[in-house]
Design goal:
The complex is a heterodimer of chains A (112) and B (114). Chain A is built from no helices and eleven strands. By secondary structure, chain A is mostly beta strands. In chain A, strand 5 and strand 6 form a beta hairpin. In chain B, 0% of the residues lie in helices and 52% in strands. Chain B contains no helices and twelve strands. The chains are: A mainly beta (112), B mainly beta (114).
Chain lengths: 112, 114
């Protein structure tokens, strides 16, 4: 099925460990996004990529890095995980300005 | 800046009751407006959208009308079902912006009892 695929679905990290969250879309969308979802906070934008080869910071970029590897893939890296990064992470992509996002199913990350 | 404010939950209703979830927005340009739904353990799914003033988005019995004069996009359903229990998010996109991001409200938890 066409859509946005995120891996892994669940992950537990120890403080200070690093990891990369993977995201791939097969809809030929130009724009891709990483959000985190926390109780009572809604969705907050971490980073986004308006097109292949470009990335920009969102509202909460500290502690994260991203790579837009090609048009399909947009990864999010935590270099040194902290308990404050415990959250559900969603990747999304979009065709154009008047269209909504297509979301992945999320990665539930716990940092202990 | 652009922002979305939606009514806080949780909202608890009996099956077949009427649903309204309020959403108002602030935007500097000409936004498109969206409602997303998130079922437990899943990602967000687009429920409906409206791209210009007075447009009505509809899907699965849900409706919302883009009201520029009141800067609102309230979600309504005439008769809710248990299967509608989920979190609902209002969102906007400023089409005049080059950033291309969506701004989300904080979400409203809906629980429908049989």
């Amino acid at each position: 099925n066409a859509g946005v695929t995120q891996t892994p679905k669940f992950q537990v990290l120890k403080t200070g460990q690093s990891m990369t969250l993977q995201c791939a879309q097969d809809m030929n969308h130009n724009s891709m996004y990483w959000y985190r979802q926390d109780p009572g906070m809604g969705l907050r934008l971490i980073y986004y990529s308006a097109s292949e080869g470009t990335t920009d910071k969102g509202e909460v970029p500290n502690g994260y890095n991203v790579s837009r590897l090609n048009k399909r893939e947009f990864s999010l890296r935590l270099e040194s995980a902290a308990p404050s990064q415990t959250s559900v992470y969603f990747c999304a992509s979009r065709e154009g300005a008047i269209y909504g996002y297509t979301f992945g199913s999320g990665t539930r990350l716990t940092v202990v | 800046g652009d922002s979305v404010t939606q009514m806080e939950g949780p909202v608890t209703l009996s099956e077949e009751a009427f649903l309204t979830i309020n959403c108002t927005y602030t935007a500097t340009g000409y936004p498109s407006l969206f409602w997303y739904v998130q079922y437990p353990g899943e990602g967000l799914q687009l429920l409906l959208k409206a791209t210009k003033a007075d447009d009505k988005g509809s899907n699965k019995g849900f409706e919302a009308t883009y009201r520029k004069e009141t800067t609102s996009f309230h979600l309504e359903k005439g008769s809710v079902q248990v299967s509608d229990s989920a979190v609902y998010f209002c969102a906007l996109n400023d089409r005049g912006s080059t950033l291309g991001r969506l701004y989300f409200g904080r979400g409203t938890q809906l629980t429908v009892w049989p």
